[in-house]
Amino acid sequence: MRDPRAGSRTTRSTPHAAPVPPTKPRKLEPLEFARWVDARAERLAESWLGEVRARQPGASPAVAALLERFLKVFTSMLSTSFGPYREQVEPLWLQLTDLFGSVAAQRGLAVGEAVEEFQILREVLIRTLYAEPPAGGQTPIPLRELIRLNRVIDRGVIQVSVGHADVLFFALFQGSGAPEHLSEEVLAEVEDQLSAIDAEFGSVMGSLGP
What we know:
The chain has 7 helices and no strands. The chain is an all-alpha fold.
Protein backbone atom coordinates (compact mmCIF):
# COMPACT_ATOMS: atom_id res chain seq x y z
CA MET A 1 0.00 0.00 0.00
CA ARG A 2 1.28 3.42 -0.94
CA ASP A 3 2.24 5.75 1.85
CA PRO A 4 -0.17 8.69 1.68
CA ARG A 5 2.58 10.98 2.79
CA ALA A 6 4.60 10.25 -0.35
CA GLY A 7 2.60 12.67 -2.49
CA SER A 8 3.17 15.50 -0.08
CA ARG A 9 6.91 15.46 -0.52
CA THR A 10 8.38 18.21 -2.70
CA THR A 11 11.74 18.18 -4.41
CA ARG A 12 13.85 21.20 -3.66
CA SER A 13 16.05 22.39 -6.53
CA THR A 14 19.51 23.70 -5.77
CA PRO A 15 19.97 27.22 -7.13
CA HIS A 16 22.78 27.52 -9.70
CA ALA A 17 25.03 30.57 -9.82
CA ALA A 18 24.88 32.54 -13.06
CA PRO A 19 27.98 31.99 -15.21
CA VAL A 20 30.50 34.79 -14.93
CA PRO A 21 31.45 36.11 -18.37
CA PRO A 22 35.22 36.02 -18.99
CA THR A 23 36.94 39.37 -18.60
CA LYS A 24 38.90 40.71 -21.50
CA PRO A 25 42.60 41.23 -20.74
CA ARG A 26 43.62 44.86 -20.45
CA LYS A 27 45.78 46.05 -23.31
CA LEU A 28 48.86 48.16 -22.85
CA GLU A 29 48.18 51.81 -23.57
CA PRO A 30 50.44 53.68 -26.04
CA LEU A 31 51.66 56.02 -23.31
CA GLU A 32 52.58 53.04 -21.10
CA PHE A 33 54.61 51.56 -23.93
CA ALA A 34 56.28 54.92 -24.52
CA ARG A 35 57.28 55.11 -20.85
CA TRP A 36 58.64 51.57 -20.99
CA VAL A 37 60.85 52.50 -23.96
CA ASP A 38 61.92 55.79 -22.38
CA ALA A 39 62.95 54.09 -19.12
CA ARG A 40 65.30 51.83 -21.11
CA ALA A 41 66.62 54.43 -23.55
CA GLU A 42 70.13 54.53 -22.13
CA ARG A 43 70.47 50.76 -21.95
CA LEU A 44 69.12 50.39 -25.49
CA ALA A 45 71.78 52.83 -26.69
CA GLU A 46 74.51 50.90 -24.86
CA SER A 47 73.42 47.56 -26.34
CA TRP A 48 73.14 49.11 -29.79
CA LEU A 49 76.59 50.67 -29.53
CA GLY A 50 78.10 47.37 -28.38
CA GLU A 51 76.70 45.61 -31.46
CA VAL A 52 77.94 48.36 -33.79
CA ARG A 53 81.45 48.20 -32.34
CA ALA A 54 81.48 44.41 -32.67
CA ARG A 55 80.50 44.59 -36.34
CA GLN A 56 82.61 47.61 -37.28
CA PRO A 57 85.75 47.48 -35.11
CA GLY A 58 88.64 49.85 -35.49
CA ALA A 59 86.79 53.17 -35.44
CA SER A 60 88.81 56.13 -34.23
CA PRO A 61 87.99 57.51 -30.76
CA ALA A 62 86.40 60.59 -32.37
CA VAL A 63 84.13 58.52 -34.61
CA ALA A 64 83.28 56.14 -31.75
CA ALA A 65 82.27 59.11 -29.58
CA LEU A 66 80.16 60.53 -32.42
CA LEU A 67 78.37 57.21 -32.91
CA GLU A 68 77.64 56.98 -29.19
CA ARG A 69 76.13 60.46 -29.28
CA PHE A 70 74.01 59.54 -32.31
CA LEU A 71 72.59 56.41 -30.72
CA LYS A 72 71.76 58.18 -27.46
CA VAL A 73 69.80 60.86 -29.33
CA PHE A 74 68.02 58.17 -31.35
CA THR A 75 66.91 56.22 -28.27
CA SER A 76 65.87 59.37 -26.41
CA MET A 77 63.57 60.23 -29.34
CA LEU A 78 62.25 56.72 -29.87
CA SER A 79 59.70 56.70 -27.05
CA THR A 80 57.91 59.72 -28.52
CA SER A 81 57.00 57.59 -31.55
CA PHE A 82 54.37 55.86 -29.36
CA GLY A 83 53.18 58.89 -27.40
CA PRO A 84 50.94 61.83 -28.19
CA TYR A 85 53.75 63.96 -29.64
CA ARG A 86 54.90 61.66 -32.44
CA GLU A 87 53.71 63.99 -35.21
CA GLN A 88 55.79 66.85 -33.80
CA VAL A 89 58.93 64.73 -33.36
CA GLU A 90 58.77 62.75 -36.62
CA PRO A 91 60.47 65.48 -38.75
CA LEU A 92 63.40 65.50 -36.31
CA TRP A 93 63.61 61.70 -36.42
CA LEU A 94 63.85 61.86 -40.22
CA GLN A 95 66.50 64.59 -40.06
CA LEU A 96 68.50 62.50 -37.63
CA THR A 97 68.32 59.32 -39.71
CA ASP A 98 69.26 61.27 -42.85
CA LEU A 99 72.31 62.67 -41.06
CA PHE A 100 73.22 59.20 -39.80
CA GLY A 101 73.17 57.90 -43.38
CA SER A 102 75.31 60.74 -44.68
CA VAL A 103 77.86 60.19 -41.90
CA ALA A 104 77.94 56.47 -42.68
CA ALA A 105 78.78 57.28 -46.30
CA GLN A 106 81.54 59.64 -45.19
CA ARG A 107 82.91 56.90 -42.93
CA GLY A 108 83.33 54.80 -46.07
CA LEU A 109 80.49 52.37 -45.33
CA ALA A 110 78.42 50.84 -48.12
CA VAL A 111 74.69 51.58 -48.00
CA GLY A 112 73.97 48.00 -46.85
CA GLU A 113 76.39 48.42 -43.94
CA ALA A 114 74.77 51.75 -42.97
CA VAL A 115 71.29 50.20 -43.01
CA GLU A 116 72.52 47.19 -41.03
CA GLU A 117 73.96 49.47 -38.34
CA PHE A 118 70.67 51.30 -38.03
CA GLN A 119 68.54 48.16 -38.02
CA ILE A 120 70.42 46.85 -35.00
CA LEU A 121 68.01 49.09 -33.08
CA ARG A 122 65.14 46.77 -34.08
CA GLU A 123 67.07 43.69 -32.92
CA VAL A 124 67.95 45.30 -29.58
CA LEU A 125 64.34 46.36 -28.99
CA ILE A 126 62.95 42.90 -29.76
CA ARG A 127 65.44 41.23 -27.43
CA THR A 128 64.59 43.67 -24.66
CA LEU A 129 60.84 43.17 -25.18
CA TYR A 130 61.28 39.43 -24.68
CA ALA A 131 63.64 39.77 -21.73
CA GLU A 132 61.71 42.54 -19.93
CA PRO A 133 58.16 42.65 -21.30
CA PRO A 134 56.10 45.70 -20.31
CA ALA A 135 53.90 45.15 -17.25
CA GLY A 136 55.77 41.92 -16.56
CA GLY A 137 54.16 40.29 -19.59
CA GLN A 138 50.72 40.35 -17.93
CA THR A 139 49.34 42.97 -20.29
CA PRO A 140 49.51 42.31 -24.04
CA ILE A 141 51.12 44.89 -26.29
CA PRO A 142 48.56 46.01 -28.89
CA LEU A 143 49.38 44.98 -32.44
CA ARG A 144 49.10 48.60 -33.55
CA GLU A 145 52.04 49.56 -31.31
CA LEU A 146 54.23 46.79 -32.74
CA ILE A 147 53.28 47.85 -36.26
CA ARG A 148 54.09 51.46 -35.38
CA LEU A 149 57.45 50.38 -33.96
CA ASN A 150 58.36 48.64 -37.20
CA ARG A 151 57.06 51.55 -39.29
CA VAL A 152 59.22 54.03 -37.37
CA ILE A 153 62.34 51.94 -37.91
CA ASP A 154 61.44 51.23 -41.54
CA ARG A 155 61.07 54.94 -42.25
CA GLY A 156 64.43 55.47 -40.60
CA VAL A 157 65.98 52.80 -42.86
CA ILE A 158 64.67 54.62 -45.94
CA GLN A 159 66.03 57.94 -44.73
CA VAL A 160 69.42 56.43 -43.88
CA SER A 161 69.59 55.21 -47.48
CA VAL A 162 68.61 58.65 -48.78
CA GLY A 163 71.26 60.41 -46.68
CA HIS A 164 73.88 57.91 -47.82
CA ALA A 165 72.93 58.31 -51.51
CA ASP A 166 72.99 62.12 -51.30
CA VAL A 167 76.61 62.14 -50.12
CA LEU A 168 77.71 59.80 -52.91
CA PHE A 169 75.79 61.81 -55.51
CA PHE A 170 77.41 65.11 -54.52
CA ALA A 171 80.83 63.46 -54.34
CA LEU A 172 80.33 62.14 -57.86
CA PHE A 173 78.98 65.48 -59.08
CA GLN A 174 81.99 67.33 -57.68
CA GLY A 175 84.40 64.69 -58.96
CA SER A 176 85.92 64.16 -55.52
CA GLY A 177 85.25 60.41 -55.36
CA ALA A 178 83.55 58.45 -52.61
CA PRO A 179 84.69 59.55 -49.13
CA GLU A 180 86.55 57.03 -47.01
CA HIS A 181 86.84 58.73 -43.63
CA LEU A 182 85.56 61.70 -41.65
CA SER A 183 87.85 64.70 -41.58
CA GLU A 184 88.11 66.84 -38.44
CA GLU A 185 86.21 69.59 -40.23
CA VAL A 186 83.35 67.24 -41.17
CA LEU A 187 83.30 65.78 -37.66
CA ALA A 188 82.87 69.25 -36.17
CA GLU A 189 80.12 70.07 -38.67
CA VAL A 190 78.24 66.84 -37.89
CA GLU A 191 78.57 67.50 -34.16
CA ASP A 192 76.97 70.91 -34.68
CA GLN A 193 74.11 69.44 -36.72
CA LEU A 194 73.56 66.70 -34.15
CA SER A 195 73.54 69.22 -31.31
CA ALA A 196 71.04 71.38 -33.21
CA ILE A 197 68.66 68.43 -33.75
CA ASP A 198 68.97 67.38 -30.11
CA ALA A 199 68.36 70.95 -28.90
CA GLU A 200 65.31 71.31 -31.15
CA PHE A 201 63.97 68.01 -29.80
CA GLY A 202 64.38 69.29 -26.24
CA SER A 203 62.68 72.53 -27.20
CA VAL A 204 59.72 70.74 -28.82
CA MET A 205 59.23 68.47 -25.82
CA GLY A 206 59.56 71.40 -23.43
CA SER A 207 56.93 73.41 -25.30
CA LEU A 208 54.50 70.50 -25.37
CA GLY A 209 54.65 69.94 -21.63
CA PRO A 210 55.35 66.84 -19.50
